[in-house]
Amino acid sequence: MEITESDANLHVGSGSEASQTGKIITAFQEYLTIHPCDLVMVVGDVTSTMACTLVAKKMMIKVAHMEAGLRSYDMTMPEEINRIVTDSFADYLFTTTE
Fold it and tell me: Among 12, 30, 34, 47, fewest CB within 10 Å belongs to which?
C-alpha cells in the first residue's frame, strides 16, 4: 500500500484513559484547526481512534474507520467502548471480514 509515516504526532504519551482522551482531543482539535481536511481516517480501537473521531465529527469532518465492526461484547474492555463510539459516529466503515 506504500503508506508513508504519519504527518503528525500529537505527543500525548501515557496516562489514565481520561487524561489521554482529554489530551488527544485538545491536541487533535488544534491540529485540525491549523490543517483542515475533508476526511479523517482512524484505525483500530485505541483511545486515539475514539478521541479523534469525536473531534472530527464536532468539527463537521467526515470519518472513515478502518477495522470497523469488530466486537467482543465485553464492556469491561476500554477497546470495546472505543469501537462502539467510533463506529456509531463514523461515516464510512471498512471491515476486516465479511
Answer: 34
